[in-house]
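Predict the 3D structure for this chain.
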Amino acid sequence: MPLASISKATSICGMPRGDGVVDAEDLKVLAEYIGKDIVDPTLVAYWTFDETEGDTPHDIAGTKDGRLMGTSLWQPAGGKVGGALQFNGTTFVAANSVPEAAAGSFSVFAWVKGGAPGQGIISQGGATWLSANASDGKLRTELSTSGGKWLCSPAAITDGNWHRVGVVCSGADCTLCIDDNEVATGTRANLASTSGGLYMGAGGKLSASTFWKGLIDDVRIYNRAVKP
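Done. Predicted structure below.
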């Protein structure tokens, strides 16, 4: 569970009843939420990839169900969190656009395993939000620049292990994250627009060479800056 969700869960009851003591009345309020999911209104899309058949990855946080373009390769027990989707280098998932990443606070995270240099993880509107850099497999984003180049992480993510990858943008800054660690920070790119179709498992221009070959799991998009 993201840290923000944990913080929200611990603050459901609000402040104590004015006497500085958490008593039975406060516990009654908390009890109403036991066993219930905590809804994060800033989570605008969430694909768990826990399906076992069909070609519709469901968005459990909203209405942006995806469409699997290509062969269905569900892995019900093969994900980092539950199931996952195996991308074979010829398939990708298409979904409706999310609020533009070109302005405002924005975060996207996903679990990935495998892949190769040059392959995309998440993209929208021609911009590749997360990918493996073409020359060395390092995590890269086209939402941010550093030293006149696209922002890249110092380490590759195509080593065959599970990695939680993400990019967080707030104000003029964007930060790349790997395994819940901030690994690189740059300036938000001056993108004309990032609206348009959202793709998972492919680069922004849907070139065949950018199709992911590996597993992707638990893709989450927020309209706020999430601290990993």
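The radius of gyration is 19 Å.
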